[in-house]
Amino acid sequence: MTEKSLADLLREYSSPVQALRNVPSPTTGYPGLAPQFSNWRSEQRAWREAAALLDQSFHMANLFVDGPDAVKVFSDLAINRFDNFAPGIAKQFIAADAEGRLLGDGILVYLGENSLDLVSEQNMAHWVAFHIETGNYDVTYELEYNAQRRQGPPRYYRYEVQGPTALAAIEAATGAPAPSTKFFHLTEFTIAGKQVRAIRHGMAGQPGFEFFGPWEDAAVVREALLTAGKPHGLIPVGTTAYFTNNIESGWLANPIPAFYSGESTAAFREWLPAWAAAGLGGSYDPDDIEDYFITPFDAGYGKFIAQDHDFVGRAALESLANKPSREKVTLIWNEDDLGKAFHDLADPDSGLPPQYMDPARMKYSLYQYDKVTGEDGNAAGFTTHTAYLSFDRRFASLALIDQAYAKPGTRVTITWGDSLRTPRPDVEAHRQIEVRATVAPVPFSDFARESYRKA
Questions:
Q1: N or C of the chain: less Cβ packing under 10 Å?
Q2: CA dihedral sign, ordered 234, 242, 373, 427
Q3: Is the pLDDT of residue 1 over 50?
Q4: Distance between CA atoms of residues 36 and 187, nearest Å
Q5: Distance between CA atoms of 417 and 394, rounded to whole angstroms?
Q6: Phi, psi of 345 (to 5 degrees)
Q7: Residue 290 CA: distances (Å) to CA of 162, 181, 261, 270, 369
Q8: 341: number of CA atoms within 13 Å, CB side?
Q9: What does the DSSP 8-state code read for residue 273?
Q10: Beta-ladder partners of 236
Q11: Which residues have C-beta within 8 Å of that of residue 216, sequence separation ≥ 6?
Q12: Distance, CA of 90 to CA of 85 (rounded, Å)
């Protein structure tokens, strides 16, 4: 690449932390998809109470890789198993750097012989594309960005239908019983005369299928699903509600990828365009960028680490296997402390107000880390995503905390408010506040925690 690189950007600042705290936050909207169709609270409840259609055609990148070495490209980079991967199957693709720090994940779909599609955040697609370009692989690739950067429509539409009545809605649309497809396996449907491929899974812990097919069929298939599914409570979901479902399912979206420092990723930083850097916000504020990095063990991926093949980071992960790691938990915010915070937002006599709390999505940076402290006053970890869950009538955070504080029922404190040392144009003048919280399991949804892979 000849444009300004990430390495060029980082050289303009004293540290990667300073650089990321000065990167403007992108908008959360995506051209072509509404923030909400009815209201985000009802849409959020739909995947718990009835059925929801979540349009995934706009916010993810696709990396299409074709050729005899297509599987080898991904197996060389994935920390998880590949011995059971074959056409007609999808799998989670998880990658780490050579030091065993997490880079990210995505869904890898085996479309057909020597033909794969990685559906992921753009940096994961970049990581694989970089290795294709700099490695010795007999493949070709096409990197299709998300709708914020893509020119024109995507190759495929992607509609996920999930919820307690999802299968009934799907059967109404297809006119046939839902097949007993295994988790993360592909099947085919006919909807409104169109051939549709589908993956069996559910993003927020409820049963369903993810449908995909040629973009020119998108409108017809969407309308057929919504019309047939309406008697079963199927409604469309916009981006506002969609970006809260990872808190329920426990998926750790957008951790800071561990390529902002380290010798093993230096060449990648020179290759990666500067625009790929994302803003860092929140009250968790160490000076060293490596304090923000996590390992696959922290994210709950330790049990997936493969023994069947070599991959980038394998030796490092084997050495980390018996070392302490953080634990992924849900934090339930204290309603009295929230009430005081909202009171102060509405009271002009309360002094400098707390940072604004948007119940729909309390997130103003792609990388947002808010500090968590134990009752003993010691640092416990950080939150990564926070939102109001209307079904539970709770404010909840997905968090990574030290194991000493991770037992359900443990009391901790979250510091709400951005770092005060780096001015951001998208954050108003405010004071930091402390909000008590209680540790709960991940996934937060009982269905997701107890029955997800059985459905």
A1: N
A2: negative
A3: no
A4: 30
A5: 19
A6: -65, -30
A7: 37, 42, 7, 19, 13
A8: 24
A9: B
A10: 53
A11: none
A12: 8
